[in-house]
Amino acid sequence: MDERERINRLRWRCTRRAMLEMDLLLGEFLERVFPTLGPEQADAFVVLADMEDLELWPLINGSRDCADPVQAEVLALLRTVRVK
């Protein structure tokens, strides 16, 4: 799979969520922040994007701690995104 196809699949996962808030937040993050991530952070974001909304949302809003330090970095970045 080439990089373009990988990004397209990731875009699909980020913008076809059960919660509209997650669609907007993950989509905005993918467009603005994802290209600036290092390889470990990019991989961590892919893992997070694969989570179900009900599992991911508490991590994003901080009501549940994340044990993985790289995922925690990405979650901190997600919290800074402002949806237009």
TrEMBL record:
Cellular component terms per the entry's GO annotation: cytoplasm
GO biological process: succinate metabolic process
Main location: cytoplasm
InterPro entries given in the database record: SDH, SDH_sf, SdhE_FAD_assembly_factor
Keywords: Chaperone, Cytoplasm
Entry similarity comment: Belongs to the SdhE FAD assembly factor family.
Subcellular location: Cytoplasm
Protein name: FAD assembly factor SdhE
Upper taxonomic lineage: Bacteria, Pseudomonadati, Pseudomonadota, Betaproteobacteria, Candidatus Accumulibacter
Domain of life the protein comes from: Bacteria
A Pfam match: Sdh5
Source organism (scientific name): Accumulibacter regalis
